[in-house]
Amino acid sequence: MLTASAQDAAGEYVADSHAFGERERMCIVSDRHASILRGTSIVYPEFKKNHDRLREVFFAMARAYKIEDFNRLMEDMDIIDKRVKPSTDYVYVVMDAEQRRNIVYMQKRECSCKRFQVDEIPCPHAMAVLDYTHMEAPKYCSAYYTKEYFKKTYEVSVNPLPDETTWDFPTKVLDNVVLPPIVKGKPGRPTKSRRKGLYEYLYTKTVTCGLCGK
User: Fold this and answer.
1) Last residue in a domain, options 117, 145, 173
2) H/E run at residue 193
3) Residue 79: its pLDDT value, please?
4) 34 is a domain residue
5) Does residue 127 form part of some domain?
6) pLDDT for 111
7) Could you report the per-residue pLDDT of 202-212, keeping only the tens digit for each?
8) Do residue 9 and residue 38 come from a single domain?
9) In which domain, by residue range, is 57 found?
10) Do residues 141 and 120 make contact, with C-beta atoms less than 8 angstroms apart?
11) Is 101 within 8 Å of 95 (Cβ atoms)?
12) What's the structural domain count of the chain?
């Protein structure tokens, strides 16, 4: 609760923020009175309260045609809400859309989401760091994703097979009987009607009689 407890020499109200402090993911609910907004900006100067401004800048970026205008709006968005914060030169903290903290180690090519080191390609959190630092993404990708390695995959010739009538099957292979897999029935009554496709739900049509119209 944000309440005034005293008034200083400059005529400013001193709030009880020292007792409450600043906490992560803190939210202030008010009736948006001008005095409350003014007091909040004084007591919590670093509090994020510019989401309306952030929305305006975002849609302005979507309508920008020139790269100069886009870069200028991108700088404004970083000033309003910076979600990528460097811890060191190669360690970054990235906040995702669900406000979860992700630690990215660019030098080790690792991320706390494990996707960077498993796929060996920058995850969305690493891409946010690359965009923030203006670094080149291909340098942090595995060599297996390059065009050179793709060509090496097919540079070895594949020998063609002879006609099927000339194949020599071993006796132990011919004696094997391949049975269908054992399928366990699902609980409940089985469905009789087929599953409709997406367009059948979107474009439903009622079938009527051509004579009576019913």
Assistant:
1) 145
2) none
3) 57
4) yes
5) yes
6) 92
7) 556 677 888 88
8) yes
9) 51-80
10) yes
11) yes
12) 3
* Global confidence as pTM: 0.39
Q: What is the pLDDT of residue 61?
A: 74
Q: What is the rounded CA–CA span in Å between residue 120 and residue 144?
A: 9
DSSP symbols for 81-144: ---EEESSSSEEEEE-TT--EEEEETTTTEETTSHHHHHTS--HHHHHHHHHHT--GGGGS-GG
Which H or E element spans position 69? helix 67-80
Q: Are 80 and 54 in contact (CB under 8 A)?
A: yes
- Whether residues 88 and 139 share a domain: the answer is yes
Residues 67 and 102 grouped into a single domain: no
Token representation of residue 193: 């009607």
Q: What is the pLDDT of residue 1?
A: 45
60 located within any domain: yes
| The residue to which tokens 């305006």 are assigned | 56
173 vs 200: CA distance, rounded Å: 47
What's the rounded Cα separation, in Å, for the pair 105 and 118? 14
Neighbours of 133 (CB within 10 A): 13
Q: Could you tell me if 70 and 64 are in contact, meaning their C-beta atoms sit under 8 angstroms apart?
A: yes
Q: Residue 45 carries which DSSP code?
A: T
Within a domain: 93: yes
Q: Using CA atoms, how far apart are residues 60 and 72, in angstroms rounded to an integer? A: 11
Long-range contacts of 116-124 (CB under 8 A, 24+ apart): 120/144, 120/145, 121/145, 124/96
Tens digit of pLDDT for each residue in 121-138? 998 888 888 888 888 888
Q: Looking at the structure, do residues 114 and 92 belong to the same domain, yes or no?
A: yes
**139 lies in the same domain as 96:** yes
